Amino acid sequence: MKYIYNIFFASLLLLLACEDPYNDASGPGDYVDPDKDYQPTELDNWLYSNFTSPYNIEVKYRWDASELNLYKTLVPPVPSKVQEVMEVASQVWIKPYVELAGAGFIKEYCPKQFMLVGSPEYNFDGTIKLGTAEGGRKVVLYVVNDFLKTDQFSVKQLIHTIEHEFAHILHQSIMYPAEYKELTPGEYTANWNMVSLAEARARGFITSYAMSSPDEDFVEMISIMLIEGKEGYEAIIECETTAASRQILKEKEQLVVKYFIENYDIDFYTLQAKVQESIKAIAPGNGGGGGETPEPVADVWGFDKTYQTLNYDFSTLPQPADFVARYNYDNQVLHNNNYALDYNFKLLYSFEGELTLRLFYYTVNSAEREYYTANFRFSAVRNDNGTLTLYYAGSDDNGVYLQEELKATGILSFFANRTFNTDWVESCDGELYVGLFPVDSPQKYAIATLGN
Asked: Which residues contact 402 (CB under 8 A, 6 or more apart)?
């Protein structure tokens, strides 16, 4: 069985050999020839010594597109990023398990191959894959080229992917308690990507993707509890749940703890503490470059800065109510016209002084789904007082259709012809996000993660 984890954290692979409207992956960068007769490099020797020899894990980074989805445009990994990624995997994933269960545990249950890919794999619905696991043997890790070892968000994203996929391997070997499926039996849905993170947690799920099936619910609980640590996890369920959903999540937590001790003789809370300790040792900060005090947003986000893109996602980010209402309004307008608005979109620097709002939408109630991208352009002006003004400058044909014919303007009007303060926002669970605060109504802001 093939498990697929994406930024919300997972979505089903769509095997379509047509145009991929959401895939904007760039060229291959540092291409490494897959010649089987190559002479081992220093990196090859390091991977062999740290993974292949002790645990029988092959780490494959030399490009072999035949092992990946031939219907997608993917980018090879940059070799300089490979060791950083695998160092974190070793310290944060393998080491805690070895300390608690021994090297034999990893040898028995770990996947036998990690394959690294530089870019994400874009799905037609706008979601991306961060990782896949096939039959408990092979794990593919994407977005290697964007990995930042000193950035805690980047480290957590990587470990979330690995822990998610490894948890699938564990429950394929020994099934989790049957009563787990009975805690929220009527809430699972194939339309999980239309459920905001806030709504998911109010219904007893740790993420939106956890609503897709009991199996995904179980492994999402494991992975989130591990990457957030006890303190971070407790903060989530205290500030983002109702009394009823908090009780459900506590019951799910106890079944996870019971599963690990009874089946693998692992104290989950000790494992959780060790994983959190390792994350903080590698990346002490939680945003903006890895320090306790992040750099100003304006110093890291811009056309020629470390990051060019703000990623908005209603399934993974705890957006304020006003911004959720804008999305819901636009989505309802589109549904009334046989379309659906994807739950994630981007605000990116397309040129110096120009930002593009990129929305994704697709047909519903049609024999064959059709996918569209709408681009809205803004002149972006940094003012002397540090604020950012976005002057609406036009759109492509799809943008005109959404704006003028369907009147789906809730999200567009948030950005158009307004001035913003940009700053870091700390959520109630301690995570840092980039916030855009309209000067005319700063309480009605929006949050995003940084990306390229």
From this structure: 330, 334, 359, 361, 374, 408, 409, 412
